[in-house]
Amino acid sequence: xxxxxxxxxxxxxxxxxxxxxECVQDxxxxxxFWYRQDPGLGLRLIYxxxxxxxxxxxxxxxxxxxxxxxxxxxxxxLESASTNQTSMYLCASRLGASGGQDYNEQFFGPxxxxxxx
Amino acid sequence: xxxxxxMEGPVTLSEEAxxxxxxxYTATGYPSLFWYVQYPGEGLQLxxxxxxxxxxxxNKGFEATYRKETTSFHxxxxxxxxSDSAVYFCALSDRMAGANNLFFGTxxxxxxxx
Lengths: 117, 114
Known about the structure:
The complex is a heterodimer of chains A (117) and B (114). Chain A is mostly beta strands.
């Protein structure tokens, strides 16, 4: 089974701090994603990476950056955390363009609930 | 653009009741359709999927049929259990349109009472 792990389940930070959220997948997936989940808004895509060192902005990239130095690891960075970034953050991975019918299925990690005070 | 419209909740049912959660979609290409479930305190898990028109996805007693004529993918279960209490998300992925992500509905919270 695909396993996607996230470094923390719960995190509390202060306004202005730099925050790193780490995500690791163990199935050699090419594509990785970061979403945030907020009540009434569903999931919104922050950034997407289709390969090592490659990234694309999603729907709400402002205030975030990402890093993908290794295929299995995708990091989300909040350069200067703000209270409006308090949310649940979900990482996901997907096989990639060579995956055929399984291309579209994304596998999710357990989420990190971040609180910014 | 692509989008998913999902029945708003919350939904509260008694154990063994019949469940329907409506989902309709708009897509420019030929989407794959998914239902994800999120149990309390956890991430999303794939519940079922369908990749082409008239396909039926099924898992754990849940079913959904990909209806191209009505652009729908409604989730159903004949007899819900307390353990089915969760948030359910309908989603689509449209590879032909070049989409790189899933488009999610806003989620429907289901509570099943004994």
